UniProtKB/TrEMBL annotation:
It comes from Arcobacter nitrofigilis (strain ATCC 33309 / DSM 7299 / CCUG 15893 / LMG 7604 / NCTC 12251 / CI) (Campylobacter nitrofigilis). SUPFAM superfamilies: HAD-like. GO terms for cellular component: cytoplasm. Keywords: Hydrolase. This is HAD-superfamily hydrolase, subfamily IIA. It comes from the Bacteria.
Amino acid sequence: MNKAYFIDVQGTLIDDINKDPINGAIEFIDTLNEKNIPYVVITNNTKFKSEDFKKFLNDKGFNIKNYIDPFYILNTVTKEKRVAAFGVDEFLKTMVDLGYVLDYENPKELIVSIKKDYTNEDYASMIEIALRVNSIIGMHDTSIYSKDGRRYPGVGAIMKMIKFATNKDYKVVGKPSIGFFQSAKNIINVDFKDIMIVSDDMIGDLIGAQNLGMSSCLVLSGKIKSEEEILSTLDEKDKPNFVCKDMGGVLNLLNKGEI
């Protein structure tokens, strides 16, 4: 039995198309609450302010007690307020609301979030800015962005492209950065070795968590549709401890005392 859980949101608790709760998701959170099992809902939400997105989830029927997203720790990673930020309009608005100044001519930092319809011109702008600034930041390091039933390059894939193009490294705010996981761990005061992480992102979430000593459960309700898509690409040490169709399967394992 695990002492605590980290639970992803998109593709794990809610679906990527209609944003509705996935089978077993509400019941899983309710069970953790009823049994007083520590947990943190960990999301790479960069679209809405933290309190607004948590309210959105609770309005969907969840009763989430502990929550964290990249905005919670953004100021521990960014050192400047004048930034060139890339992402959807809601992300840019949230950045301004948080006190950042958007400047694409003389920025101090490059900050990249997710967007479905980035163009080559956007990537060219990112590269040009990356070559000029001393600090390059990815809001998270996800491998794939699932939207409207399609799979697009995640922020992690984009950041690795920028790194390859410029030979300059970057920092990560959200998952799977050590700082993010450490901040989530501090909320519940449980050792990594006693935490199981549940997510639909093998590369962008689970492997990083496993490297810190956490156990893992991959759900096939989001970015990855079948075990065959991903498991054959992994070294044995990187494979998840459990694979479930969705949170209903995870709940079943919890109720049987297998996780």
